[in-house]
Protein 1
Amino acid sequence: MPASVLRETQAAIDEVPGLGLSVLGVSHRSKWFRDVVAEAEEHFRALLGLPPEYHVLFLQGGSTLQFSQVPLTLLKPPPNEAEYLHTGYWSGKSLPEAKAVGPIKTLWSGQAEGFRRLPTDAELATSAGASYFHYISNETVEGLQFHRIPGRDDVLRICDMSSDFLSKPLDATRFAVIYAHAQKNLGPSGVTVVIVRDDIVKRVPPGLPSMMDYRCHAEAHSIYNTPPVFAIYVTMLIARWLRRDVGGLAAMEKINATKAATLYAAVDGSGEFYRGRAAVADRSLMNVVFNLPTAELEKRFTSEAEAAGFYGLDGHRSLGGVRASIYNAVTQSSVEALIGFMRDFQQRAG
Ligand code: PMP
């Protein structure tokens, strides 16, 4: 969380300015909350330059629910296969959910290579007849990020952007559905932002449970049932911060690129003590994943880091190693402090 938004949030837990109530106690049916949703939507539209045919929805169930909601919307009655990329842990989670609903083709998998790189365009034999094309823009666990938009413009493109949404400018008009959960760049957990084009909303098949129906949520302006008021409020504050304080997504991208370049340079300049995991061309600017010479040293590194005030550096439980997540709110000075710790650790242990 950006420090200024954290302070605003703390104040709003006590009392929302001008309202006389805590944000934790305001009704989701109040005019105040409807205005919060409207303001959040307005910030997202401005940040992304979204045309009117896109809906901005604030939903629940996380990105995991979207793994099912997307195929439930687009694969009934069974049409052509949908094409999926298997680029890491999270796309691996999306596949069985989609396969439970309809015909899915895994267009490319990096599993045999240990998910150390992403496919080139030449490796993707996409078909004009696919129902849709699904991929994850940033594999959070392996630290792999697409620095281009894969897939074809004549097929519906669906993207899970959970871990790099709002980190850089985005041409949303090339997508039919974009989804991203909080935490990470969006705010506290509990809300999932779904940007969905109107023709997709109109295609929702009959018979879906209403909570799985984009149309219900679009018609109700994200207040179909009791929404996560607190999470949506803080997400609105973060979108406002991105627009007003940071100066938009191009400015955010510059900050993020500098942070990542500084950290990768420290990894690469360590004489192989720290070793980046991902292929250089596909390295994530959000999740910097690296190894040390042994698992024991990695354990010592993360526990000494924690004692020094650097939390959450353990790699994902499925992979081990070290992962520094440098989302939007992480500052350049925090990155430099981490590098100071890395150099010090290498001197002591290397
Ligand atoms: N997709 C990606 C890229 C993620 O990083 C995560 C969670 N870290 C998920 C999906 C799952 O999201 P949720 O826990 O909100 O269901």
Protein 2
Amino acid sequence: MSVLAKHIARLIKETGPMPVSHFMALALGHPKHGYYMTRDPLGAAGDFTTAPEISQMFGELIGLWIAETWIAQGSPSKIVLAELGPGRGTLMADALRALRAVPGLLPALEIHFVETSPVLAAIQKQNVPNATWHDRFDTLPEGPLYLIANEFFDALPIRQFVRSKQGWCERYVMLTEDSTEDEPRFEPAIMPVPQASNDILAAGQRNAPIGSLAEVSPASAAFAEDIAHRIARHGGAALIIDYGHAKSAAGETLQALRAHEFVNVFENPGEADLTAHVDFEALAVAAKAGGVEAYGPIEQGTFLRALGIGERAERLKTNATTDQARDIDSAEQRLTSREEMGSLFKVLALTPKGAPAPAGFEV
Ligand code: SAH
């Protein structure tokens, strides 16, 4: 049994049942035993694969998006290029390779990573040696901010509420009856007392039928608003890519993934990746409250095609062997087709009010 499970069991025993959000935050981010603190979860040998790990085209196209957005805002001479949760640093390395072709951009930028995992930060350092690392967003330097977040928001804690006859009641995690000190076991339970106010839920969730479950991520909204404040103040743009839904709605999406298989969310905390689908409407609402323009979300397939993934694949194939050409085609397919990542994954862009619509989002 994991050290973290025992730690959580002790916490629950001493302080009572904990909200799902607290359980999720500990499972992923406990400073010593959290899921991300102890491993590199990415790739075939890990628990899941992400778009930048599928193909270099993903990061390269995002690099060109940053370049276009930078030029559209008058090519400011000093910018902060930041990434939240950069994984292995693959996206940024690919983006920088594409950026090099853009006159004046490379010398203008400083690279900043927001990352809490020491294991992943060490890998990032190999791939992007000249970055500066932060474990919080607020220590990023001031200045025009160009920010990327791919599969970051799905890892932020969510709160869950279930609608009873009395109202929306929060879901907590407690110990099962047969839980022991050596073999702690957890299960969810609904608090019998409803929230005093439904303000925490989005309008699209509040009227769901009795028995519905709704998820909200105040941590995600806070990030979106902080990013927006920076961009409103200094200029720049943000590109948020993740799996999720365009409109706030009820429904349970919290899931646990281990070795590319779904497992029980409440079993073995710290050993499986816990994620929830991102509520893009909630992110856009929070960002607008922070003072910026929000574009989208649009589907990842639509976005990548608009940025020219088809042409990029053709170019790469001109110097490729038959096997490599097949891999390039299959990567393009995985990233863009509706049956794979093309539709479930969505893209939201934030820009200062009055700035031109960013590439891929023009109507
Ligand atoms: N963007 C990468 C990795 C996605 S996995 C890719 O697309 O491949 C999620 C990333 O977010 C990991 O790097 C993880 O360590 C980081 N992370 C998760 N929660 C975080 C938090 N609260 N603050 C900073 N980084 C976090």
